[in-house]
Amino acid sequence: xxxxxxxxxxxxxxxxxxxxxxxxxxxxxxxxxxxxxxxxxxxxxxxxxxxxxxxxxxxxxxxxxxxxxxxxxxxxxxxxxxxxxxxxxxxxxxxxxxxxxxxxxxxxxxxxxxxxxxxxxxxxxxxxxxxxxxxxxxxxxxxxxxxxxxxxxxxxxxxxxxxxxxxxxxxxxxxxxxxxxxxxxxxxxxxxxxxxxxxxxxxxxxxxxxxxxxxxxxxxxxxxxxxxxxxxxxxxxxxxxxxxxxxxxxxxxxxxxxxxxxxxxxxxxxxxxxxxxxxxxxxxxxxxxxxxxxxxxxxxxxxxxxxxxxxxxxxxxxxxxxxxxxxxxxxxxxxxxxxxxxxxxxxxxxxxxxxxxxxxxxxxxxxxxxxxxxxxxxxxxxxxxxxxxxxxxxxxxxxxxxxxxxxxxxxxxxxxxxxxxxxxxxxxxxxxxxxxxxxxxxxxxxxxxxxxxxxxxxxxxxxxxxxxxxxxxxxxxxxxxxxxxxxxxxxxxxxxxxxxxxxxxxxxxxxxxxxxxxxxxxxxxxxxxxxxxxxxxxxxxxxxxxxxxxxxxxxxxxxxxxxxxxxxxxxxxxxxxxxxxxxxxxxxxxxxxxxxxx
Length: 598
Fold this sequence. Notes:
Elements: H1 8-38, H2 40-55, H3 60-71, H4 95-98, E1 142-144, H5 152-157, E2 164-166, E3 169-171, H6 183-190, E4 203-207, H7 213-218, E5 224-229, H8 237-244, E6 248-250, E7 265-271, H9 279-291, E8 292-301, H10 311-323, E9 327-332, E10 335-339, E11 356-357, E12 375-376, H11 396-399, H12 403-406, H13 411-431, E13 444-447, H14 454-458, E14 465-471, H15 478-483, E15 488-491, E16 504-510, H16 528-538, E17 539-549, H17 551-560, E18 566-572, E19 582-588
Parallel strand pairs: 4-5, 4-7, 5-6, 7-8, 11-12, 13-14, 13-16, 14-15, 16-17
Antiparallel strand pairs: 1-3, 2-3, 8-10, 9-10, 17-19, 18-19
């Protein structure tokens, strides 16, 4: 009614304003269309949109179709690159996903893996300025700053000798919070109490390791120290360790057992690791006890050992050690050294923590997504001789069949045959396949299907370390690998591995498709494409993949190699080997995001 009563001049003004708006909107859309189609802005916006889609949860149907096309060899383009901000992405340790979870016992910092359909199917790019890593052994002391340009540790811990920025490098003086004068001097102090240099000790676990300078210095003593720490606020402790060529992986001592079998480590070390060993009825100390060999050594430096205002915590720590009958070797300043008893446990006894022996239903070797227990694992629950002092010294223990292997059916014969087989295969790899094993080009090696560790044992004279992975659904042979003086973890290859991108020089997999098969039904539990994308994430640019399997599987993998930007060549197996195997050797191409190449 109001409009009808207005003068005509005012009505016309309103109509013209409306037409102006419509016209402006139309011409605006035309201009946007022109910009999107005929200028680089359109490409940029489209790329940005694709990156947003890659970060968000993918459409499961589209994802399955893409997997089918890649597996059948009908997808002739490489899988798209992930966004630039995903250069350090670890799917199971993603802070954006995990921060929403419970903080009780640090649950939110443990592995929390997305389902495959929730995982973007894309290839992790290197950061801008990435270079082929500094070769071993120079990498122990310096790495390229541009490969992981995170200055937080250098800024906060440089005065303690952790690491420093020096021109184009990060350098590592070898220090740590509890050994600011260097790990070498700290280890010399430990030698007063522990037989570090005579081959008695070979496998060590460094808990909450910083940049792993302790583990790096222990290499000179012929002790392989596997270092672990969670994904952390300091940004990439474990990434620095692996870039240096030091054995390491990402883990958190939270609500679950660590992924190792019982009685694996000769020596366990914590330097200001801040693990509350006596909390939750000493649950964390009990987990350390599960992993430490009888006769092995436990060293804790830093709080609460003779630490100001932590008298109760220090008293509790000593009380737990007494309850488990650990022998106190020394308290030297803020460092305590204990030796675990050999033989039957002294439990049950009266102790204030209520620690008891686990009952017969507990398998202390089971440690894949297994909740921590509040009971101690007795040595009677594991068959064999594995105490420090009863097993051979290094290097004899590498080649002698461990008693835990003899507990398996035909264990001795299988062990000896496996050792001979891998010595023959590795010789063929070097001579006929021209793999760079034995050269500075290969330092960090992974065996995805390690069994007895025969592949790693055959590389013992090379300047490498090997992460031996025993698939969680296969026979539990990881304890035998540790008895040989090698290191490794349990893992299920239908999930991403707990490491940063670009951390291995060579990844080896025998029986490739078996890694994802259900042992009972023989059906695949997940997709080979996802497994290849995960291998690509872990592999350094110009790194090598070696896959052994039937001709049918090798043919399938060869068809898919270009999708993950690998250059692959298929070879015949060694002349002396039986069976129908073929060997695929692939190199990861060094590619960069377009924006990073300008």
